[in-house]
Write a structure and sequence with these properties.
single chain; 616 residues; alpha/beta; Rossmann fold; 2 domains; 8-stranded mixed β-sheet; two-stranded antiparallel ribbon; 21 helices
């Protein structure tokens, strides 16, 4: 269940196949039966579809796909009619599928209408402008009479005109990301993902869930309507990006405070609970316990491990290649013209379906490997009083993770308690947690392995497994009232409460949840949200260390969370008597509010503390 909350700019965000689309809930006619209330994702109905051939083959089978598409559309319309769904991102998923179906049906009017409706309900300023941009350009070009002789060129011209009219300061992050997504996406990648991720389970059960079916709809739309014009789409975005060389305003750096070694402060122990840390980079700050250890570690199965950094094994021989490819993803997203970016685009353009699995797994492996070290560099920056205590949790990097079980969930819960007990014993004051998981991820992992029985049986088993981890982690956090836990909100643009994403959906006096903004203070399109998200910090293209000492820029709420951990550690250093609740209050009091963004200001919070302490 546990996953890092990594740079969406690096791997997963670039490979997303469905656009982020949303629409308001449909209003039933007067006198219609009351809709069933939906309070959380678990209240949603489950649908399954029998399949007689592999999902990857359905993508190219007109008759089989048409039958599946008809059933999917019928179920979505039924759900929208019968259930009172208020969650925006759930509606996004439903309506994204309906938009793809409209495009596949060549219903140009419905495509344009949906895009307009989707933007009207979107809450984030950039997505309100950029949602459905490519779909809209595709529909506008298709509607021309007579049809353009060079459809791709006309579609690209329309897309370029639409994108050029948008306010660059608001939309630049998402336009660059959209451009990058098409630069690395290919038919072989799409088919390969279906082959490797969906085919094995379908072969065992002869069925797929609605989650998989909707992904197949998005994939088919990419293959039929969009990827044939990939070069035109990329060219359109490239023209807009190239026309804007202005650097994004930096409202973040001025907020930061570096403590000088001469400051009147005391050492503070900072726990980094993550995928592991390269100790050699932070050797002057690492704490050594009575047994000569620098932390506590558990492997993928929650067995104790002596390795505080994930052991790469045979993958170590190819690590430089994997890191270069990861940097290529980062540079492509940022529209940086580097050798790594050129190499990546060349490699991805020649990718074969059978190469998809090793390529994506190796990228996820190296991102997991680098994640904890990158987070640590952010958490310790500018703080000579920070003392590092490492807690390693291991994340699965395979396209099909191991099958979740009740037995493993119990081991995971015991490991949570052991790590927090170690932090308590080590005198840690603040812990960064840039990871998490949700109920639906457990359910999806069961399906991916062909496990758990029918849809309803799988739902019940997923709940049992999830609740063991959920309650175990919550109990462990509550058992450490003297520690402030700083957690990342998540990168799915979801409501963390509705999705039961843990730990960011908890509400505890000794916990603070962090969403991500860019350096200009705009909420990122990927940052999750909800009533439990307390503050926001810079989580866009943040530079820090990866193992070995190289520095890369990652994006994600994983990078925003340690910014707040960094501030908390400095507050504890300046006033060791602060309680977690008092430190949290200082952080929140120093924030600048703008809509639902509550932007952290280390300078203001430290100023408030100094005023309280009577500093001159």
């Amino acid at each position: 269940m546990n996953q890092p909350i990594p740079s969406p700019a690096a791997v997963r965000r670039l490979l997303a196949l469905a656009a982020a689309l949303t629409i308001a809930p449909l209003i039933g006619a007067q006198g219609a039966p009351a809709k069933k209330p939906v309070q959380s994702a678990d209240d949603l109905p489950r649908h399954t579809y029998a399949v007689t051939e592999a999902p990857s083959l359905i993508l190219g089978d007109d008759d089989a796909f048409a039958a599946l598409a008809s059933a999917v559309k019928k179920d979505i319309e039924s759900d929208l009619r019968d259930y009172d769904i208020q969650d925006r991102t759930t509606l996004e998923g439903y309506k994204a599928t309906l938009l793809a179906l409209a495009m596949l049906d060549r219903d140009y009017a419905a495509t344009g209408r949906l895009v307009a409706e989707l933007r009207s309900i979107e809450e984030k300023p950039s997505l309100k402008l950029t949602t459905g941009l490519v779909s809209e350009a595709w529909a506008d070009a298709r509607r021309e009479s007579p049809p353009p002789a060079d459809f791709g060129k006309e579609m690209g011209a329309i897309l370029a005109r639409k994108a050029a009219k948008l306010p660059w300061e608001t939309v630049q992050d998402d336009l660059k990301s959209a451009k990058a997504g098409y630069e690395v996406r290919s038919p072989a990648l799409v088919v390969g993902i279906a082959q490797q991720q969906f085919d094995p389970a379908a072969a065992k059960t002869s069925a797929i869930s609605a989650t998989v079916a909707r992904q197949l709809v998005a994939m088919r739309n990419q293959l039929v309507n969009l990827l044939p014009y990939k070069a035109d789409i990329v060219s359109a975005y490239e023209g807009v990006v190239s026309a804007h060389k202005a650097v994004m305003p930096d409202l973040w750096s001025a907020r930061l405070v570096a403590l000088p070694p001469t400051a009147k402060a005391k050492p503070v122990r900072v726990g980094i609970w993550d995928s592991g840390v390269d100790e050699s980079i932070f050797k002057d700050s690492v704490v050594t316990d009575a047994e000569g250890r620098h932390g506590i570690a558990f492997d993928l199965h929650s067995n104790p491990s002596a390795d505080l950094l994930f052991p790469l094994g045979d993958a170590k021989a190819n690590l430089p290649e994997y890191i270069a490819r990861l940097k290529g993803f980062i540079d492509v997203t940022a529209s940086v013209d580097s050798q790594e970016a050129s190499d990546l685009k060349r490699y991805m353009s020649g990718l074969k379906p059978e190469q998809v699995k090793p390529t994506l797994e190796n990228l996820q492996l190296v991102e997991n490997y680098a994640h904890g070290t990158h987070v640590t560099g952010i958490a310790l920056a500018g703080d000579p009083f920070a003392q590092l205590v490492i807690g390693r949790i291991t994340f699965d990097y395979h396209m099909i993770p191991e099958t979740p079980t009740i037995e493993q969930a119990k081991k995971d819960a015991a490991a949570y308690q052991a790590v927090i007990d170690y932090f308590k014993k080590s005198g840690v004051r603040v812990v960064n947690m840039s990871w998490g998981g949700s109920l639906k991820e457990v359910e999806n992992d069961l399906e991916a392995n062909g496990a758990g029985g029918s849809a309803e049986e799988r739902k019940k088993l997923a709940r049992q497994i999830f609740d063991i981890g959920k309650e175990g982690l919550l109990a462990a956090l509550r058992d450490a009232p003297g520690i402030l836990f700083v957690v990342a909100a998540g990168n799915a643009d979801d409501n963390v409460k509705f999705d039961e994403f843990i730990p960011s959906s908890y509400q505890l006096a000794n916990m603070i949840t962090v969403g991500a903004v860019d350096q200009a203070g705009h909420e990122t399109s990927f940052s999750s949200f909800g009533p439990m998200v307390n503050v926001h910090a810079n989580g866009f293209e943040v530079e820090s260390y990866i193992p070995g000492g190289q520095r890369l820029k990652f994006s994600g709420t994983s990078m925003a969370s340690p910014q707040v951990t960094n501030l908390a550690a400095k507050l504890f250093a300046l006033d060791p008597a602060l309680t977690p609740a008092e430190a949290k209050a200082l952080i929140m009091e120093g924030c600048d509010k703008d809509g639902r963004v509550n932007l952290v200001s280390p300078a203001k919070s430290i100023g408030l503390l100094e005023k309280k302490l009577g500093a001159p």
